[in-house]
Amino acid sequence: MTQRKHNFTVVHNPKSLSFIVVLIEGPSYTGFLQNLACFRRVAMLNVPSQSFPAASSQQRVAPAGQSGRNKVALKPGHSLMDWIRVAKSGRDLTGLRGRLIDVTEEELQKHNTRHDCWTCIRGMVYNVSPYMDFHPGGEEELMKAAGIDGTDLFDQVHRWVNYESMLKECLVGRMAVKASTALKAKSVIKDTITHLNGQAPPPSPTFMLPPAFLIPPSPSSLQPSAAPPPPQPKDARPRYDWFQTDVTVNIVVFTKRKLPNSGCTIVDLQDGVLRVEVLLGKMSYMLRQRLAQEVDGSVAVHTACAVGKIQVSMRKAAKGKWEELGEPLEFHDSLFRMKDRAIFYRECMLVSKTEVTHDTWVFRLQLPLGTLMHVPVGKHIYLKALIHDSEVVKPYTPVEETLVPATLDSTQGTAATDIFLMIKVYPDGVLTPHLNNLNIGDHLSVSSPDGPFSLRLLREVTHLYLLAAGTGFTPMARVIRLALQDLGSLRKTKLMFFSRQERDILWHSELDGLAAEDERFQVEYILSEPCDGWTGRKGRVEASMLTDFLLRPEGSKVFVCVCGPSAFTELTVGLVRQHCFSEEEIHAFQG
């Protein structure tokens, strides 16, 4: 009788300090046992993990019922650039004179006041007291994490922020847990190894993750039962396969669901590593392999939306038969929740900059050879730049090259290779002056698409109402275009656009032209600082303005989108609710 060998994996839940030993049939576990040093990870809370990025949501106000980040007015001399100067001044921002220490939970809890405030983010402890007056969300928001593990609070609005760079001079040390926790984990492993060798019964599951993390036993390991087992749900997990010809190698992904017409597949081929990500609503399916042989830099993607099949094709650098596709890398053949996936960047080149107003430009960024990426309507990307030795990251929502194309297919040649960003340059900003100083041909780090907006929200909508302030217009631009071109149910799209002065109105002539050409579209401009000759409406958003704007005709299905500065968005969403619009009828983009 052949003795079956086993493998096992210890899964660590850093938030609850719990462990589970999962049995897996397969190769010997000797290699794993030789690397027990990996258990150093249990010495910290919320340790950064490549395989389990922190669960979080993006900085946004959507859905409307959830409050976004409230920015506060910072004192003069307390901008992000001012903070960067403070961090580089050589001041002791930790109070420890450069020492790094291990911080216990008890010690962390002692530092919970305005002038002595420590917090833990992903296992690292920071003294955030010096940063209080520089935080755009204000002192109150930071104090919510005083003396505790603030990872979840941070992730709710700041997942994309490089806090390690911003707070590196405030680093106190790493978070430590009691030694008994690590010893107990090792005890579980020891008992499990003994059980696998047939020397003892299995250990009781003292350390358990929530049921959602458990791997169900295989059918062959279950004892016979008089009653038939309950029917198992159909496996909805995507799968992939590959095939080749003499000149091409092709990967086929079977998503097992219908797909949108565009914007669901992102391909990056860099230095022989192929990364394919398929966006599936709230989930993300990823393939990541180091290819066995060389291919040309270009990649083609073909999607059969109705059957949910995606084919990624590459040309071989040399004709011949491949024995294998390549070497699977970390995250290969993995299914993530969108909010859990790591943010991936690629280097894009600035190819043009077109003036829109006196302080706003459209930046055209070209994706690198080997990358195919279309940003779905309503999604945003992140720009990342190194400024004064600090990484600065900001979200931006792409627009199209023009508000309305000359023909329906006029943008097909650029959709997969170019990204257009309408950006207002703030003289006292940090990132936008840097962007404005870039030369044609310079490069910039651009992330994959992110954000909660879904085209399902617009399904069967007959009346679409858009309220935008300033560059909060950018997500509306593509929503307008999609609504008028693709929504067969649409009867009316109305935009109420708030600006300071007439010269600040973005794509003013394009909007007027669209309203003249398509009777389903209507735009109204509201100026807070109009000139004497302005004949339109004046002021700021208020309830009375929306009474005649937010109409609900009999038999209609309505939807409202809001975007602008945080204060505008918070106020406007509240006013829309006062007009009896439900949470399901409102989406707020974060400006």
TrEMBL record:
Entry annotated with the keyword Iron: yes
Reactions catalysed, as given in the entry: 2 Fe(III)-[cytochrome b5] + NADH = 2 Fe(II)-[cytochrome b5] + NAD(+) + H(+)
Domain (CS): residue spans on this chain: 235-326
Domain Cytochrome b5 heme-binding, residue spans: 100-176
FAD-binding FR-type domain sequence ranges: 343-456
Keyword Oxidoreductase annotated: yes
EC annotation from Swiss-Prot or TrEMBL: 1.6.2.2
Pfam families associated with the record: CS, Cyt-b5, FAD_binding_6, NAD_binding_1
Keywords, alphabetical: Heme, Iron, Metal-binding, NAD, Oxidoreductase
Protein family: Belongs to the flavoprotein pyridine nucleotide cytochrome reductase family.
Listed name of the protein: Cytochrome b5 reductase 4
Species whose genome carries this gene: Salmo salar
Gene that encodes it: LOC106605501
